[in-house]
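User: Predict the structure for this protein chain, please.
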Amino acid sequence: MTITGIETELTTAATDLLLALLCLAGIFIIGRSPIRRSEKQRALVWIWAFGFLGAAGLLGAAVHGLELPAGRETFLWQPLYLALGWTVSLFAAGVLIDLRSRPLPRWSLAAFPAAGAAFYAATLVFAGAFIVFILYEAAALLFALGAYLYLYFRDRSSYSLWMAAGIAVSIAAAGVQAAGTVSLRIVWEFDHNGIFHLVQAAGVVLLLRGVLPPRVPRTPGPAPGPGPAGR
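Assistant: Here is the predicted structure, written as structure tokens:
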């Protein structure tokens, strides 16, 4: 295996790796944040969502950045599509938890990995598998955008705006990917895949800000009384 000599494939691999590192950082930050007992399920759902997105980024970096035999490259696309399917399905689960303002029933959680697996099965049936992902992702993102705008106007909660902003950026990223003809040179050449990853990385940062619990200000303790008088 050698590193590819195609510049746009290298920048796509590098931005895939950037996306994976951001997701890893997000998992670490969520895991280290103070989380109330009632929000444990929400945190775990988002940790897994970022985890699968990061795994897809690592696999994408290998597929785009390395010269692989055709059979091995085809093989790597399979877990990549499955990871993307689970990312979007867990994303939808996170949105529903916020809409309900309480955890989902445990029995219902199995439906979301099943939906991701169904998406993966669709990629095996239809040609142009990434377009299938774009359509699948777009449906989930449009639902999520409407949900968080509704939550903002209902509760005026700042986290809803962060989530809506992250979703709007993710929709823009999906649009860049679907266009397929966009390119940009910033020192190196980026094609639509690399630009998609860069825009999606900004979306991940905004989503992470919305997922994190608000900082609770430290409650000041009682003012110290006068100490013993010195001589």
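The CA atoms of residues 85 and 116 lie 4 Å apart.
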